[in-house]
Fold this protein.
Amino acid sequence: MQIEVYKMTADADSISITLEAVCDSFSSLLWDIECYQCGAFEVYIAANPQNIEIFQTGRIIGRDDDREHFGIIESVKIDTDAENGDYLTVSGRFLMCLLERRIIYPTYSATSPTKYSDIVHSVVSQNCMSDDNRRIPGLSLGEVSGECWEQTTKLQVSYTNLMEWIYTVCEKIGGTANIRLVKAENEHYQMLFELSQGTDRSILQEENPHIVFSDGYSNLLSFSYAEDISVQQNFAYVLGHGEGADRKRTTYFDGDEPSYLKRYEVYVDADDISEEEQLDGETRQIPEEEYIELLKNRGSEKMISPKTASESTIAANSTQYQYQKDYAVGDYVTVQHIRFGMIQPKIQLIGMVEGFDQNGRSLTPTFKEG
């Protein structure tokens, strides 16, 4: 596996990328792919004039064995040490971090049932692909895959950080988003914004081969599990536009209304949701029933389930399952710890830190109950 370093030059409509260096002599590499937040990387490499020239902020980092994830160098740190030598710590995040540079403006409103994929595409187009000064050069809308993106909703959103909002939507419906580089012509590239959904590979389904991590199979090297009920929220009082007693208001809960000790309430200030929308260049008053639906959707975004998290180390060189071939981040798998008598029959792989150092390759996944 080799690290590739590219120089990126952007003009109004496209980006030009040139390969500056290929490196396989680093001390360590962490490659962290995430489902519900922006992934990141870190390279630890000897500090010398050549490497300092190569690893500059703003350049693109890639891997010759991963064509789906590319990072932007955001930080370069030099440490000198008389005993251990001089080292560079090069870190950054994957290309989705470009969307963190935009907020959602002006207000986007969907008052009729609209597919989540269409909503996200519209918001990205509005804030990254339309206005000249706000355009992200080379960014294009790519493929959508996964039934979760076919779900419909009504919502209104404004002034929120674009990247954070997209990942909020992803976590709510169980999808994920990614930006990858695709070569167009000459040295010009496109950045494709793609929406997808993980595959169910757990023992609770029969369509796909089962992926089971277990101490009984010798592919689960370490295991930790944590559960926390203190942070959950399952009943929302949502207050919208207006003053005092005239404020539009509603409540939101999923399924049967929680009660007694099972009820965890939260106040949601949705005053930013306007009672008007722009439709075909004209201002339209949103009917009250549609406005209430917008408030309910905002309330649904604030629901928090009891925290359950499982972190493990799994066999990186197992011939049984190969990461990125048999399973990937976003997939649902089964985790079993026979010694503790614990089994999580369907749990989502929401993150994977792939590490390379003098000891070889390691895989550290993070799981979350579905």
